[in-house]
Amino acid sequence: MLKIYWANSLFGEADRAYNDACVAGVRKAGHFVINPQENNFNTTGAAASAAEIFARDTKQITECDVVVACIDQESIDSGVACEIGIASVLGKRIYGLYTDFRQFRQGEFRMYKNPYVIGCIESKGKVFTSLEALLEKLESIK
Length: 142
Fold this sequence. Notes:
Order of helices and strands: EHEHHEHEHEH
Distance between the termini: 6 Å
Radius of gyration: 15 Å
CATH topology: Rossmann fold
CATH architecture: 3-Layer(aba) Sandwich
CATH class: Alpha Beta
Number of domains: 1
């Protein structure tokens, strides 16, 4: 069983619902998933300092085998980008999940992703365009 840290924006209702659905699928496949939106700072409305949030999330990244970073937003979420960087420095496997169909467009309507962040992901893993493809990869390294 892999221990996976799920990195995605968690502030909007749609993001939280997406995280819940994806994390449920990864758990159903037999993996342990740390989903930061389930941490008490994010479920109880308890006040937490930036230092407390950073310490907790960094500890969880340190304890995982793999970081899955959702990068569908127009700009990669700044917290997710930071989590990708921390995972890279720690030598963790990093898998990006990029399902936005605009990535396949050509010209001015193609979605731009910061190549430094993509390079960081690819230096330790790969970017997948579907949850199914990600699950296949996770199964192969289980």
